[in-house]
Structures are given as C-alpha cells and as structure tokens.
Design goal:
By secondary structure, the protein is an alpha/beta fold. The protein has a single domain, classed as Spore Coat Polysaccharide Biosynthesis Protein SpsA, Chain A (Alpha-Beta Complex), CATH 3.90.550. The protein is built from nine helices and seven strands, in the order E-H-H-E-H-E-H-E-H-E-E-H-E-H-H-H. Strand 2, helix 3 (69-76) and strand 3 form a beta-alpha-beta unit. Helix 1 packs across helix 2 and helix 2 (34-53) runs antiparallel to helix 8.
Amino acid sequence: MENTRNPFRSGIFIMVKYPELGMVKERLAQSVGEEAAIDLYRAFIQDTLQTVQSLDIPYHIAVYPPASQERFAQWLGPSHQFFGQEGVDLGQRLQNGFATMYKKEYQQVIALASDSPDLPIEILQKAVSSLQTHKVVIGPASDGGYYLIGFSHDLFISKVFEDIPWSTATVFRETLSRIESVTSQVHVLPEWADIDTKSDLQKFYETCQLQPSKILHTMKYLRSHSKLLQILFS
C-alpha cells in the first residue's frame, strides 16, 4: 500500500486549456492562423505530457474550462488523472490547483505550464529534487514570466498568486520578490522559452533543427506543414 504520509511525496500538475477557437495561443494565431495555432497547442500538450510521464512520478492534468475534463479524456485517454481549474484568473486557478494537490496528500507540488514543448527532462528532474532541500522552486521564462513553480506543503505562499500583472515582463521578478520576502530557501531553475509568438516559434524550430535526435510532436507538425514554415521564415 502506498504511504501517503511520505514526507518526500512529490506530484506535478500541468496547466492546460482545451484547444479550441479563441481559447489558446491568440498571439500566435495572429501570425499562423487559428487552425495552426490550435494544432500546435495540441502538440505542445502532447510533448509536455511525454516529458512528464518519463519522470515516473504522479502527475495530474488541470484543465480549463473545468467542464472540459470529459473532452480531454476522449482526446488524451481516460488513463490520465484530470481535475478542473477553478478561479476567475490565473492566480486563483494556480492557488486552487495547489490546494487540490495537497488534498491528495502530496507534500511537494509543482505546477507546470504547457507552452514549452522542448523543456528538458533534466530541468524537471532538478525541480523535483530541489524541493527535497528547498521550500520553493521556480523556473523563469525568457519573456519575463515563469514556466514552473513548486512549493513544499509546509511553506505554500499564496500571496505570490495575488494581484500579479499576468502576461507581462515583470511576473517572474515580482513573484520571486514575494517568495524571497518569506524564505531564502528558493531554487531558481535555468531560464527557458515558452512559445507565444511567431518569433518564439521560429527560435524553437531553429533550435530543434540542431537536435535531430529529439523527436517532438511539435516538430513533426511543423515539418509536415510546409506552408506554415513558409509563413514562419518569409
């Protein structure tokens, strides 16, 4: 029987939106079109899941809107564990996601975005291991946000999600400042890029072209759509 009181019991939840018109990657859609943006976001989710699954620790998929759980199960398969994102903004949805995971008896919890399909497994491994020696872990994104944040249950800092200017270049700095006002036990991971714009997608493609052994759903999609590549590099 699993020991749910294990002080090192870690879990991850992945923040995802259901890929449909007007819901995902709106800035990217302005350059590549709605259909391609939706297809790409589907590939981002699949790549993120593939990496998380290779960690061999429990994970859950936090879906938005909350009522889309059945549709996600039909798409990704019923073997995954889903729960709905609840809250009026991203901050509330993250807070509630952590609360849900702690109720499931996880002691170290990591929230992961789904916008960095090439995030190395080594970074996720470091995020998990760092919570054995630190109270907080955070991964800065190159656009000023963050792609990952995690807390030990005994020092969850809810104020890092309150009144944050989401989708701005100051999100990471403001969040880290609030964390450091409470504890020095924070581990900052390497910066990584997420994909929100045409420029982000160009950089992703060029970087992955140099790593032919890295097979990603996102790269397969790009390589099979020559017209999209023409849009990116015209």
